[in-house]
Specification:
This protein is an alpha+beta fold. The chain has one domain. It has one helix at 45-67, and strands spanning 8-14, 17-23, 32-38. The chain has a 3-stranded antiparallel β-sheet with strand order 1-2-3, covered by helices on one side. The longest helix has 23 residues, at 45-67. It starts with 7 loop residues before the first strand and ends in a 20-residue tail after the last helix.
Amino acid sequence: MKEQQVGRLAMRVEGDNWNAYYAMTNTMEGALFLGSIRMAFVQDASRKAVFMGLMRDSVSSILEGVVGAKPEWKDPVKAPEHERTKE
């Protein structure tokens, strides 16, 4: 099967929360809100990894149901400047 990107997991700091979205490759328009956690709870790298893993597994389950295959995850990349949260 040919590799094809069908979206991404987007993590955003918004206020006191760290929010997870499933979004299309080049836009946040129409992004699906997946979950949120208070920033105070993810200051520790291991807790941050656990939350990211849960969100990644959630997206994997959704995509497996839609396309019939679990996605392969690449290393995280920073969001383009125009998509970053403005504090």
